[in-house]
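A note from the maintainers: we've had questions about how concatenated examples are separated. There is no special marker in the raw files; a new sequence line simply starts the next protein. For clarity in this README we add a label.
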Amino acid sequence: MINVFKGTLLALMRERSVFIWVLAFPLVLSTMFAFMFAHLDDAAQLKPVRVAVVADARYEDAPGLAEMIDALSEPGDGQLLDVARVESEDAAIELMRATDAGSSAPDGGSNEGVVGYVAVDADGVPGVHVRGGALPDSVDSANQSVLKTVVDNYLSSRALIEDVANEDPAALADARFVAQLLDAPDSTERIDVTRNPPKETVRYYFALLGMAALFGSQTGMIAICRAQPNLSALGARRALGATSRTKTLVATLGASWALSFACLAVAYAYIRIAAGVDFGGRDGACLVALAASSLLATALGTLVGSATKVDEGIKGGVLSGIVCVSSLFAGLYGQPVMELADDLSTAFPALELVNPATQIAQTLYSIMYYDTFQRTFEHVLVLLATTAVLLAVSLVLVRRQRYASL
């Protein structure tokens, strides 16, 4: 049995097609992803809202308004606003209308992304004026909501102070009390609902690893075809030996899994180190998940390869078709396909159970974003259960094969 394992492993390592699909393909595709997604994650990060403020005499006279704006625009991790100060409303409107990324604001900043401006009217009440045309689900719409919330909070605080002044003027003599009322509230609080901050690009790498793992099925298919007496001379010699078919299948499966997992681990290391993709610091758990994924892929290849009287090239084409279709519904082929995959998963949750590429991607997703490994265990169990079914069918097919002559 050990000799069968060694012989199968050496024979597979001489197969050029194995390394093309199982190793070279994910390396090339991950390199393309690295160039395509180089700045996508940075663009998706929250940035301070770019606004204009009419800093005239009325703005300075509005109690606490300038202090609040200064506090919210102070550089640092908690910066909420990026303020451009202008002298008049006409200048603010002109600044808001400017769309050239290269044009400069009066404070030396960029006009790009100025979503609105704040101006104080003759009655001393600040108002928000936003740029029109923002779609409801756009970034501009969200930024405009932030600006409106800031001003609404200021007006609420000021109204509270006025009510206190009318009812108990002596309370305003307490400096601590006044400071508490005028203290700029935290308009937004940043919290993490997942273990790691969500990233736009990581899901594509999850789908890529799912596709790369499934391409490992080629090793199982080639190995089992080489073990069939009617398809190869090596299989004919093994059939005449003392090793049972069950042991031959187990050794062949083990060698196929070892090679496909080794290639997948190299691809993961390349994505992790060379492409600079951070999987949340759980590399060990990711490798365990990829080991289970490789086992499933090998079992799939073994099942397809166990079919008798079918040319090896046709079997390879069938496997390639299964991998490509599975990767399609895992969202590998771009944003529209990713949205289609999400819609299908929501409408038909059972599809995830029968799609190995989706299961692999979801396993990696759960490792990165969930605090515990409960969801990961569930996905791994699905992978192992699918593997067991595929192996059971493969074993039945192999044990029932009979040959009139070799």
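[label: protein 2]
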Amino acid sequence: DTLTTIEIFDTVARELVPYRVLTSNVIINGKPCMLQVKTSLVDNDDLIQSIVKVQVILLLLLLAGLFIINRNLSKKVWMPFYTTLNKLKNYKVEKHEPLALSKSAITEFNDLNTSLQELSERTYQFYISQKEFTENASHEMQTPLAVFQSKLELLMQTMPLSKEQAELMSGLADAGQRMARLNKSLLLLTKIENSQFADKENISLRNCIEKFILQYQPQINEKQITVENKITTDEILYANTSLLEVLISNLLGNAIRHNHVGGSIIIKLHAGELIIENTGRLTPLDESKIFERFQKDSIDSNSIGLGLEMVKKVCSINHYDVAYQFINNLHSFTVRFNN
């Protein structure tokens, strides 16, 4: 018997593997034969490690396959839901565009689509009712307000009034004028919210600003306000003329109304930005509330609190950005034109 060590090529691992070989001469059925017993000398740990690696790889491949299959199935199953969700995000009640939700092989999604279509229709009907009520209420209020003001003026002219009566009449006249302005502003705000200003054209922002500076000149002179026009370039905007005039008139009117006697207004226009700065109260306004409806300076009894609300609405419709800052004792409103 001989005991030797040889290397044998492993076709799987593609490398030479050492074996311990026991060779013996034996006689089988009267014939001499050579018997060899081979034992691999490879460490069992290496063998176990190789087996574990193979199993881990197979497991990872299995998990990856299951993930891909599950992902594709989920996309297919949830596709109607995401289609519905996307249409809901783009739905605008004022346009009354039908949702046109497609049918699905899943009963629950079909029920959801049916409910959403019914809800959108009810929402539109409610929107129309609210719109008509607001418009009708505003229009109906105009006539009695006009009658009230005209009758009050006649009353003040046709009879001698004492000082106390004159003060009462003056207070009534101021209240009537304020109510008329409030009604007009609410009607305008309703039209803005209902997207009733659709026509657009190219507008010179510089010309629009200078027009309103001239228009507000009596109020500017009355308060002895200094207007610094620092507009050096022009900005051509593709917008609705009425809406742009609402934006400029309210910003400029706000700067005049909340200014003090002998104050100043600075107007800048450059790089797609309009900045209107004004003196006034020495404390900043509440940035979180100034653009909300009926938020106003408590010291200004003539303000109806809708000017900056309309500014915000116009900017929102035209995708402009509007911001307020209080810098160096100046109240600054900045409008960025993103078009």
